[in-house]
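Protocol step 4 of 6: record predicted structures for both targets in the notebook before any analysis. Target 1:
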Amino acid sequence: MMISRDYLAKSIQDALRETPVAALLGARQVGKTTLARQLAATWPEPVHVFDMEDATDSLALRNPKQALAGLTGLVIIDEVQRAPHLFTALRPLVDRMPLPARFCLLGSAAPEIIRGVSESLAGRVSFVPVTGLTLDEVGAGRRDDLWLRGGFPRSFLASSSSASLAWRRDFIRTHVERDVPALGIRVQAGVLHRFWSMLAHYHGQVWNGEELGRSLGVTGKTVRHYLEILEGTYLVRVLPPWFENAGKRIVKSPKVYLRDSGLLHAFWGVESMRGLLGHPKYGASWEGFAMEQILARMPAAQPYFWATRQGAELDLFLERDGRRTGVEFKCADAPDMTKSMRIAMADLGLDRLLVVYPGGRIYALQENVTVMPLMEAVQRLEAAE
């Protein structure tokens, strides 16, 4: 089964029209290679593909100037973070006029990509974040499947729930045993796996590195390094706090989420919707899932959360052109106005507050506070981008 990803396909085409280099960034197995193949199938000029996990292609690009200088059309380089020397070589190639070739780089590790770009390709590259499958791509009728299985295409499209869960467990093991070491990062696979599992049980909570470090028997600095590995490979979201001079004691540590709900459920041992709905932290699962669905369609947004030491909080805070939007995620049949919402509206000066829940109705709680299903929230927030 092929799911159309027209939004991302258009983003890639737009990026290559604007700059000579487009960098597709996202977790492994999220669909970057499939998107690149679809792009290649419709590209009107010659297409050349290199995969840095392929020994022959890797050897061919040891001398990138010799290998790439004579190519025209579109050059696709997959898993480019494995060859950081390419960035220096690409700069003179993309500065040629007229430009004989454009480059599409696929990367699954942020630090190497960003470092190379900052040193060599600044002003010459457009970034295209590639997430897992989204609700608008699979259809609102499959929301629960997407929530349970997550957005990795092979997990979502698996023949059964048990096959999907098995794929996710294999992905987790492969990531810590093969993918992370392939980046030149030295860390014990078993320790990183335990940290990731612990993080799943802290999903949606304020980061406390010292506490996690004590549980693992390592320092807070070490667990911060583990967190950076998972964040840099697009598997964890570190959501920063919003704080300003509000006259209150504000939480200033970030919150941490597993970005893919399917991986979260794999760590929890949840295989069915019945099991998820009966899990004591299913509300935190909904919060993370719904948040990622919203942010997937708002790639330019800088998201925050807000919380006070007195207990008031807001799950998601967005500011654009001076307009402030708050989003609350509620796993309830009919969410109502809360004291925390009133405090957030007043203290943050919100222009509107959306309460996103798994139900199907849209209704107002008061002026500028509206309860709505996830799909409607995604559409409203995307339209404001």
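Target 2:
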Amino acid sequence: MFSGKMVQQYIDTLINNLLGLQGYQLILAIVFAGFYLIRLLYLFLFTGKVLFVRKPQEQKPVPVSLIYTVRNEEERLRRNLPPVLSINGVDFEVIVVDDVSQDNTLQVLGMMRERSTRLKVTMLHQETRYSIKMAQNIAIKASGCDWVLQVPITYENASPEWISGITSALGENKNVVIAYTGVLPEGGLAGILYRIENFLLFTRSVGYILNGLPFVYAEENVALLKKKYFEVGGHGLKINEPYANLELLINHIIRKESTQVLFQASTAIKKTEPIRWHDYADLLKKSIRIEKHLTSSKKLMLAFDEATKLVYFPLLVVTAVLLFDIWPFIALLVVIQLISRMVIIKMLQNRLNERKIFLSSLMYDLFVPYFRFFYRWVFNQKGQKQKWKIKV
């Protein structure tokens, strides 16, 4: 058993070792302390700040146009659209644009339109390279409401709480209303990694919004004031971007003061779709491309965040080895940081009802930044080669 005197002696020795650091050891300690504070501040001021997002006050609901762009989705239309059309007590319309389907999508939509006056159906008449953007443009032009909301057809069992929560947040002084879109767990490593990456991207986006550097990584379940779409010329010069659609336009007009974040399970949607490795890769590619289109200040902040995260873990290992005499103090700092992150991530996942990815998300956030850094480099190199081939 340790006596009080022995504990006091150990603490005194540790303090003396700290005060006795000199030369490269002192420099290393100062550098580590700087990186530690940066990562801790980012944890609390960005990720942790998301916990303070509160449900907006109840106000008069505003009508919204739900936009679906579909291709060969007759089965999902039969299963997922009727629950939306049957919602009562909320003022909204549904616009479905058929993207040159080869199955019975148009026939299914025709039968549904006969049974529901709130459903509008239109279509693209020929195959185009960027047909999703063209379909969105058609849907927004056909919209009879001031607000539009992109919805995935893979969203099952739509609830009145979801759409009423969205419409109640569409205030007069808002241009963008952001809610969460996740994926229901179906097992498999690719699905787990996709869900974790998707969750972390959303929380990162919200953290940046709250700190005056707003942007989004996803267009689904994000409401946009329709007139803003036309003010910036629609998809315009971004029509050739293969990995992002309305996100690029939203990021062009988004401002902190005119953006409402809904960070609760009632307004979140969960898609039911099988996730494969290419889906996870596409999610990474999409986030990389979206970040390339951000303003310089946002790109600089994101780069600083990623760089300090990449350096921090190797620096921690080196510091613990070379400053072994003060390892208990270093361990205490790491424990404080780890517990803080665990509490924050768990609370955020509970708020969104995002289950069964808690421990895996902690491990993911520790090691995947290195993979993402490598993947970003490879992806950018391939992009440069493709540009070179086109020029030649």
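Step 5 preliminary note on target 2. Residues 155 and 271 are 4 Å apart (CA to CA). Confidence is low (pLDDT under 50) at residues 387-392.
Proceed to step 6 after PI sign-off.
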